[in-house]
Amino acid sequence: MNIPQYKEIYDSANSPGPAVEEIKAVLRNKDLMAQLIKRDLVTRYKRSVLGVFWSMLNPLGTMIILSLVFSRMFDMRGVYPAYILTNYVAWNFFSQSTQFSLNTTLWGSDLFHKIYIPRTSFILSTVGTGMLNLTFALVPLFLILLITGVSIHLSILFLPLAVLILAAFALGFSLLLSTLVVFFPDVNEFYPVLLTAWMYLTPIIYPETMISDVLNGWLLRLNPLYHLIKIFRLVVFEGVVPSGMEWLVAVIIAVITLTAGWVVFTSSNKRFGYYV
Question: Which one of 45, 87, 139, 149 is least enclosed by Cβ atoms within 10 Å?
Fold first, then answer.
């Protein structure tokens, strides 16, 4: 007696939704992540003599220039270079990750039409590459901390958590940007201007006390990067473990941004083919 074989039929009504489906797809193609990160690094440094050493030299060079220009403006008793470099390493990770993400979706458009690849993989690899560059940049950062006499405390053990929170925010923001740039290409031209303004509105090259009273402190409170970079600076430069409230605010900002970015990107990416 032959028993009929029933094939499982895909029921869109019972589908967990594009956001969850994308997570499953990324996990199934996790080996692709390593290949994309390798491609990003090779593409960026293949014509450079010093290669990945530039990820250490660029922040160091920026620190030297900013220190020469602004060191006399702020009374920080010789530790100003360490202050700048700490903030700039965190800022540079965010700015590079988000800027590079603007082109990753457009770069992969040909592949999207030929084979199935989780589109979030390109954004994830961009942030992953940024985390590698940040790791390299920690080498000159710790050297400058030692040279300027800034003590390294046990609070440094919280550095991986601070980086993870910043990376989650960068990923969510990158997903939002990548969605916008598909439908509004001018975002690619406008974003560098926004980044410049954002950097000067965030206490990176100056102490936060300079603008703590602006708009009764709301200029800082409403700046998400202020909270995330502050966490990074506290554990590295100031040698202080952030308070529970400071951690909570940073985590909430990162989770909301990541969730919003993931949902917006995954619910819109099926329409990307009409625009890229």
Answer: 149
